Amino acid sequence: MLLHTKHFHFGQNQLSGTIPPQLFSSGMHLIHVLFDNNQLTGSLPSTLGLVQSLEVVRFDRNSLSSAVPGNLNNLTSVQELLLSNNRLTGPLPNLAGMNALNYLDLSNNSFVATDFPSWIPTLQSLTTLILERTQVQGMVPVSLFSIFSLQSVVLKNNQLNGTLDIGSSHSNQLQLIDLQTNFIDDFKQSTGGYSVEVILVGNPVCQETGAAGQSYCTIPQSNTSSYLTPPNNCVPAVCNSNQTSSPNCKCSYPYTGTLAFRAPSFSGLGNSTYFEILASSMMISFKSYQLPVDSVSLSDPRKDSSDYLELNLAVFPSEGASFNRTGINSVGFVLSNQTYKPSNLFGPFYFIGDQYTYFAAEVQVPTTSKKSSNIGVIVGAAAGGFVLLSLLALVGVYAFRQKKRAEKATEQSNPFVNWDPNKSSGDIPQLKGARWFSIEELKKYTNNFLEANEIGSGGYGKVYRGTLPTGNLVAIKRAQQGSMQGGVEFKNEIELLSRVHHKNLVSLVGFCFEQGEQLLVYEFLPNGTLKESLSGKSGIRLDWARRLRVAIGAARGLAYLHELANPPIIHRDIKSTNILLDDHLNAKVADFGLSKLMGEGERGHVTTQVKGTMGYLDPEYYMTQQLTEKSDVYSFGILMLELLTARRPIERGRYIVREVRVLMNKDKDLYNLQGILDPAIGLGTSLKGLESFVELAMRCVEESGADRPTMGEVVKEIESIMVFAGLNPKAESATTSASYEDESKGYATHPYSNEDFLEYSGGFPPSRIEPQ
């Protein structure tokens, strides 16, 4: 429906699923479609070929499959097309007619073997051709190298053969021909030699006698461009510490940062002309907005792992040695708000500015003086007005203080006096014993929310370490000030955690609802999330015995919610980032923001909006919207499989339940699962009870909830498995000081410092189904 939108910039996210065909239509005015570096699957929709205004298309670094749509060559205005690092099949797409195409990258796909496409040499605007691992075969036509603008040709790891002939009339811009690991048996060099970097390592031509001495039979050392904007016909100044000589040879404190271009049209980073054009266009833009800029300097061009072009930028002030705050804000706005548009050579970009600490004083604009004859009148009137205003101010301050005292007394008796039920938060929370903290208390415990005490952050706000007067550490989760978007989850969590108490549930110490603030105060757990330990981030090794203890702890916490809490509670978001480990590695269930109370008459199920995390989500609940305790059982079954494999539920498009079902063979040792078991579990040692653990996990993830055990039954079975493995189900784990903790990584990271945990501690997020 966004027919007039010109930019879809969705690169470098975690978008998953298939691309809906209705996303594109012929009535759109898009020029940039950037979906690179995501987790998209399925096919590239043919409707993309209807958007003929497109200039930049990036779908590289996803998991797209199927053939490329045949109508893609309708996009005759496209200058950059990147579809690399996917699973695309079928023949290489025929892009004949895309005469504006500068940059083409179709590498690392699963195309069928085909001869070198005859249409490629017809793309006369081409600067960069990258077809690594695309199954192309046959000879490389000499006509390819006569394209006037051609700079780089990368055809590594294919089936090309015959003689490589770049001709004598090749482009004078050509810098690189990389044909590593093919079947080239000869290289025809022009009589005048060549200045192009040719790499033929891994071809028969380099296996001949005497070939070892040829430059094209060695891999050159990577050489990064050392470009720096040159001085403007002057001698660089000798500057004091921290000052830099500008292109106009003046010493000053520049505003610096990084420019990142998502789809440049060229690959030859050694050509200074491009950067001179960029610097010139930036100065024109700054002058057009009357910004106090003397000159700009660009340096160190390089490509990152996503093929983004990065440049260091320095902007020098025109007045004095440094910018004032207004100048910095103005320059930053032009760059960060996309006000400045670079030439099509560079395409879409973003800017990350460095911190600036050398601010000059703001210039004060003088005011025009009045006639001296009026001075006496003005002074007299001002004095009288001042006395009157002072008296009014004193009365106002006294009244304000009295009002604040009354409000403070009211809030202490009812902290939710300002609760707004109309902001999707429902009625005032009903609490049972949770402590109310004032904002002043929490500021004191965190040293006024000092940055050094920050232990996590996310879209909701930040998490801080706090120290109570008793000396106990707490984790204080602070939502963005004034934001009430997560009122439902805030209310849910403090209501539920104030009424349930169990050693395998995270304890709520208290909360704060004051001055537009929403804060939750939890017990501090030093050993992070289960996911951190499984991934190795925490430095704690979980062997088979410890994984059983984690499983029994989490199961007991869930069983308490289902069977002993009154009314029963369904957690609705069981996953490895919501299982925290204390100093003895005992598991505690966390994050009750999505939990659901089972009221009277709802013992069987409750029909409700689907919430949870994809991969852990009960498919029966997803299909019927009927939530039961068995939905938590399904999520717990996924957690058990994660304990076995240390894999995410959905990884590279593969679902862990299906992977285990396909491999599982009860007639073989360890049920034939050695290939996907986490090596850290102790492979090669006795893993008593593992088969029973697998069977229990697979029963928990049965498609029908009626076929799954209850959490009480799960607890009993895990206890039996532990007894069989020679473990005492009632004993606690050892402390981490007696653990397999990796000393090279230091003490285990804090649970609230991990990005995945912040998905949990993300304050009080809106309703969601979160991608894993």
**Which shape, going by the Cα principal axes?**
globular
Q: Would you tell me the structural class of the helices and strands?
A: alpha/beta
Instruction: Give the spatial strand order of the biggest sheet.
Output: 1-3-5-7-9-11-13-15-17
Low-pLDDT regions: 367-373, 409-415, 421-425, 735-772
Q: How large is the count of helical segments? A: 13
What value does the Rg take, in angstroms?
Answer: 33 Å
Mean pLDDT reading:
82
Distance between the termini: 28 Å
Which fold does the CATH topology of the largest domain refer to? Transferase(Phosphotransferase), domain 1
* CATH class type of the largest domain: Mainly Alpha
CATH superfamily of the largest domain: Transferase(Phosphotransferase) domain 1
Fraction in beta strands: 15-25%
- Sheet with most strands: 9 strands, parallel
> Helical proportion?
10-25%
* E-strand count: 39
The CATH architecture of the largest domain can be given as Orthogonal Bundle
The total tally of domains equals 4
